[in-house]
Amino acid sequence: MSKIQELSETMKVNMKKILKRTLLILVGLIVAILVVGGAVRLIDGRSPQAIIVSHSLPQRTMEDYEEGKGDKTDKSTVEIPEGVTFPREMRQYRVGNMQVFHMEAQDDSKPILLYIHGGAYLNNFEKLHWQAMAEWAESTGCGLVAPNYPLLYRYTASDAHPLMMQLYQQLVKQYSAKRIIIMGDSAGGGFTLALAQQVCSSNSLDLPCRLILISPWVDVLGADDAIQEKDTFLNAEVLRHVGSDWAGSIDPRDPMISPLYGDMQSLPPTDLFTGTWEIFYTDVVKTYDKMKSAGVEARLHVAEKMGHVYPLWPCPEGSAARKEISKIIMQ
């Protein structure tokens, strides 16, 4: 055998040893990650991903509030973020000055999901909203209507609510109300409940077939201060100021602003999602209790040690909640 051949064989042997060693290291790392992740879940009760998410969310301070108050940046037009795709064509139109995204259902047997996004009535759609909506559209075949409703500080509730009612009236004319589900998270969850209460009181509009409320903000002056130290995202003091700003000239405890104080009679079946470590937890439970007392077919989904809008989080707990919501949409 020539020296070149010997060298070649030696290199092959060395490469095999390196590959074997690398594979063993990778396997060891994977095992270590699984072991550590399992240990974290056993000790803390949450997945490592959920812990990371909960501590990566920015919490607004009163200084942030004072600095941002009165900012009248135009938020009336947004785009779907890059990397988020929907299974069917997403068209856009406007109801008054409100931008609306609209995707048809897979077929006429599928529901139409009217999604009202959260963001403390200050912030527009986040990428997590779009990703969750795309996931539900793909897994259920539902249609999707996502309004970019007027936000602070150009507008207040008195500007947004008439446009949302107008949009709902259009949808009821286009589709059977029995196909329409209204879902919202955080401020959008509160808006969802307030809109449903308005529809109930109108006596001229058919109710949607279901409501899905994710960590709904149902009392803009509420929130449980005893949970504040556990909530790494929401700041109760800031939210009470923002809630008053959103109310404008309306009483903050008016059901249009704080639907916890509204009439729960005749509401459609409702699913409420909340985490025990969010300051809205107590108000969400109160809302559920009022619904049950009023005879509403309501279900409360509680996740221990989870924070605000956890069903949208990129973690196992969030994924499980989104799958549960998919099942609810397909009921």
Give the topology:
Elements: H1 3-44, H2 48-56, H3 62-68, E1 90-95, E2 98-103, E3 112-116, H4 127-140, E4 143-148, H5 157-174, E5 180-185, H6 187-202, E6 210-214, H7 236-247, E7 270-275, H8 281-293, E8 298-303, H9 316-329
Parallel strand pairs: 3-4, 3-5, 5-6, 6-7, 7-8
Antiparallel strand pairs: 1-2, 2-4
Verbal overview:
This protein is α/β, with parallel strands linked by helices and 331 residues long. It folds into two domains: 44 residues; 265 residues, Rossmann fold (3-Layer(aba) Sandwich), CATH 3.40.50.1820. It is built from nine helices and eight strands. Strands 1-2-4-3-5-6-7-8 form an eight-stranded mixed beta sheet, sandwiched between helices. The longest helix has 42 residues. The protein is globular, with a radius of gyration of 24 Å.
Question: What brief labels describe this structure?
Answer:
eight-stranded mixed sheet; Rossmann fold; single chain; 2 domains; 14% strand; 9 helices; alpha/beta; 331 residues; 44% helix
Q: Brief description of this entry?
A:
The chain has 331 residues and is an alpha/beta fold.
CATH topology of the largest domain: Rossmann fold
SSE order, as H and E?
HHHEEEHEHEHEHEHEH
Task: Give the overall average pLDDT.
Answer: 91
> In what range is the share of β-strand residues?
5-15%
- Which outline best applies? globular
Helicity level, as a percent range?
40-55%
Structural class: alpha/beta
Strand order of the largest sheet: 1-2-4-3-5-6-7-8
Query: Termini distance?
Result: 73 Å
* Annotated CATH homologous superfamily of the largest domain: Alpha/Beta hydrolase fold, catalytic domain
Q: How many domain units? A: 2
Report the biggest beta sheet as strand number plus sense, adding barrel if it closes: 8 strands, mixed
